[in-house]
Amino acid sequence: MKRRSIQLASFDESEEEARRLLQVGYDRAGNWSLGQVCNHLATGIEMSIEGYLSRVPRILQRAMVATYFRLFFLGKIGKRFNLRMPTDAPQKQPVDDEVGLQRLVAAIGLLKDADAAHWNRMHLWHCEHHLGFLIPHEEDAGPEDG
């Protein structure tokens, strides 16, 4: 099954898409469930607010993030970019869809409350990328008659 390409204009749309997937059901074009996808997206949002890599000095963290942003906004890192996660990363474990969704909703709330507008484009792209691997059941059925 092939992943879908979706466009999300806001975090509200990201949340609506995740809720729709929970409601109508979905098939996977990848390995993760909705719960795992939402958990992963929430982790990224939380880390952008709370800081990355707690063992790495703050100045090095800032340099890494600045480099990533430059590459992202120059188009050098796109939807094909693949960051390898450690094998013990939390999203490798099963996560209930509803639990993952609630965590994503809470993380989006944190992002909206934080002065982190510079992260918005990257996080929306991240949501588009991962939610695109979940295919709503209603799309499989095609247009309904009458």
Could you give the topology of this structure?
Layout: H1 11-24, E1 26-28, H2 34-50, H3 58-73, H4 97-113, H5 120-131, E2 134-136, H6 137-141
Antiparallel strand pairs: 1-2
What keywords describe this structure?
146 residues; mainly alpha; 55% helix; globular; disordered C terminus
β-strand percent reads under 5%
Low-confidence stretches: 79-90, 141-146
Q: Tell me about the biggest sheet?
A: 2 strands, antiparallel
Q: What topology, given as strand order, has the largest sheet?
A: 1-2
Distance between the termini: 28 Å
Number of helices: 6
Kindly provide the radius of gyration, computed on alpha-carbon positions and rounded to a whole number of angstroms: 16 Å
Specify the overall morphology: globular
- Count of beta strands: 2
**How many domains, as an integer?**
1
The proportion of residues forming helix, as a percent range, comes to 55-70%
Structural class: mainly alpha
